[in-house]
Amino acid sequence: MAMINQDMREVIRRAMLSYVATICADGSPNLSPKGSVFVFDDDHLIFMNQNSPGTFANLRRDPRVEINSVDVFRRRGYRFKGRARIVPPGDPAFKWLEQKLIDLNGPQYPAHEAALIDIETVQPVLSPVYQWGHGVEEDLAPKYAALYIRAAGLTPSDLADED
């Protein structure tokens, strides 16, 4: 049975930034934002080491990892726990991710190695607004999008396409 379903794929796509937790040598947690987290297949996530020597040193020592991806506008997401395998340049998984990132961002970013995550468990992340505020996803997305725009000091006209 596949660990990653279509809804999880959509949340990761919409999140655009996920958080990767690893374990430091002294046992303390390390949390690192990653804009390169993608679904590789039904059982694996993958992310690139673009500038993450600490995260990848931690994974070499202890492959346990948790990745949190949350759609901030819909106020929900997923926690993915698993084990990482470091894949070097030339590996098919590395090449796949490298091409995705080039297509998305251009070739200017470094790509040292990738972490292919074998997902062992997945748990949902839900804002209390669903339980206590009786939130409805279709209503939450526009509300929180507007809040984020205001918090960033923008107006809707700042986001309008200019031809």
Helices, strands, pairings?
Elements: H1 6-15, E1 18-23, E2 29-34, E3 38-41, E4 44-49, H2 53-61, E5 64-71, E6 76-87, H3 92-105, E7 113-126, H4 128-131, H5 137-151, H6 156-159
Antiparallel strand pairs: 1-2, 1-5, 3-4, 4-7, 5-6, 6-7
What are the defining features of this structure?
Pnp Oxidase, Chain A, globular, 163 residues, 7-stranded antiparallel β-sheet, 6 helices, 7 strands, alpha+beta
* CATH fold descriptor: Pnp Oxidase, Chain A
Q: Supply the helix-strand structural class.
A: alpha+beta
Major sheet: arrangement of strands: 2-1-5-6-7-4-3
Shape designation: globular
Largest sheet: 7 strands, antiparallel
What is the H-and-E element order? Answer: HEEEEHEEHEHHH
- Per DSSP, the total helix count is 6
Beta-strand percent range? 25-35%
CATH classification, class level: Mainly Beta
Count the domains. Answer: 1
Please state the CA-atom Rg, rounded to the nearest Å: 17 Å
CATH evolutionary superfamily:
Electron Transport, Fmn-binding Protein, Chain A
How many beta-strand runs?
7
Unreliable runs: none
Give the % helix: 25-40%
> How far apart lie the N and C ends?
47 Å
What number is the mean pLDDT? 92
